[in-house]
Amino acid sequence: MAIARISPTVLDIAAHQDAVTGPQDGALASFVGTVRDHSPDAAGQVQRLEYVAHPAAEEVLEQLAAQVSARHDGVTIAVSHRTGDLDVGEVAIVACAASAHRAAAFDACQDVVETVKAELPMWKKQVLVDGSHTWVGAL
């Protein structure tokens, strides 16, 4: 694992890619999750999201990234998640995985994203254009 961070500031995609790649790697898989203007559980158009992290979220993220790394031999992983207010189009999560071969990098990248989405103690407030809001992901 190279990076596992919770950040209130803009995520640097290139820094995540650089952190995982080395001369031994022939494959780099990246996932960039952005705020979209709709959600299946929203009753209208999404204007922005507010991400709120549990105080232990960064420690949990480090543990999750380490667990995923342990499941994927020879793969280096970097993952970060934003907190705070994000407008439509802003980057909420970056995950990168590098390996000697593409299949391993793809698999590890998907694994870390799915694991973080399922287990990170992070809550999302969806603010709709009409001013209403809903909370998603409360554990």
Overall geometric form: elongated
Characterize the largest beta sheet: strand count, sense, and whether it forms a barrel.
Answer: 4 strands, mixed
Helix content: 25-40%
Oligomer: single chain
Provide the spatial order of strands within the biggest beta sheet: 1-4-6-2
State the helix count.
3
Structural class: alpha+beta
CATH superfamily: Molybdopterin biosynthesis MoaE subunit
- Uncertain segments: none
Beta-strand proportion: 35-45%
For the termini, the CA-CA separation is 26 Å
Radius of gyration: 15 Å
> How do the helices and strands follow one another from N- to C-terminus?
EHEEHEEEHEE
CATH class: Alpha Beta
CATH topology: Aldehyde Oxidoreductase, domain 3
Mean pLDDT, nearest integer? 95
How many domain regions? 1
Could you give the count of β-strands?
A: 8
CATH architecture: Alpha-Beta Complex
Could you give a short description of this structure?
By secondary structure, the protein is of the alpha+beta class. The chain has three helices and eight strands.
Write the layout of secondary structure elements.
Layout: E1 3-7, H1 13-20, E2 27-34, E3 46-53, H2 57-71, E4 76-82, E5 84-87, E6 91-99, H3 102-119, E7 122-128, E8 133-136
Parallel strand pairs: 1-4
Antiparallel strand pairs: 2-6, 3-5, 3-7, 4-6, 7-8
Helix pairs in contact: 2-3
Describe this structure in words.
With 139 residues, this protein is an alpha+beta fold. The chain has one domain: Molybdopterin biosynthesis MoaE subunit (Aldehyde Oxidoreductase, domain 3, Alpha-Beta Complex). 29% of the residues lie in helices and 37% in strands. The protein is built from 3 helices and 8 strands. The strands form 2 sheets. Strands 1-4-6-2 form a 4-stranded mixed β-sheet, sandwiched between helices. The longest helix is centred in the C-terminal third of the chain and has 18 residues. The two termini are 26 Å apart. The mean pLDDT is 95.
